[in-house]
Amino acid sequence: MDRGKLANKKFTCGVCCMRGRVLDESKGIVWFGCDEKVCGKWYHFECLHRSEQEYLREIMEEGESWYCKACKPWLYCEE
């Protein structure tokens, strides 16, 4: 059974540094990857700061690219 099998190394959370598992999605663990070409970081939704989660929800609804706070911090500035 693949229950404990690690996924590709690219699925290492940029916040908690835990590596993803092959069956994460079936267990409700959601990953999001930064769309900045030079970044390549992935994140658990739960590990993101509230402002990042809100921005991610908006972007997903609009169907646009998502960029992490490390790549484009100005997207997360509160007015």
TrEMBL record:
SMART domains: PHD. Residues 10-74 form the PHD-type domain. Gene3D superfamilies: Zinc/RING finger domain, C3HC4 (zinc finger). Pfam families: PHD_NSD (PF22908). InterPro entries: NSD_PHD, Zinc_finger_PHD-type_CS, Znf_FYVE_PHD, Znf_PHD, Znf_PHD-finger, Znf_RING/FYVE/PHD. GO terms for molecular function: zinc ion binding. Signal peptide: none annotated. Keywords: Metal-binding, Zinc, Zinc-finger. This is PHD-type domain-containing protein. It comes from Dreissena polymorpha (Zebra mussel).
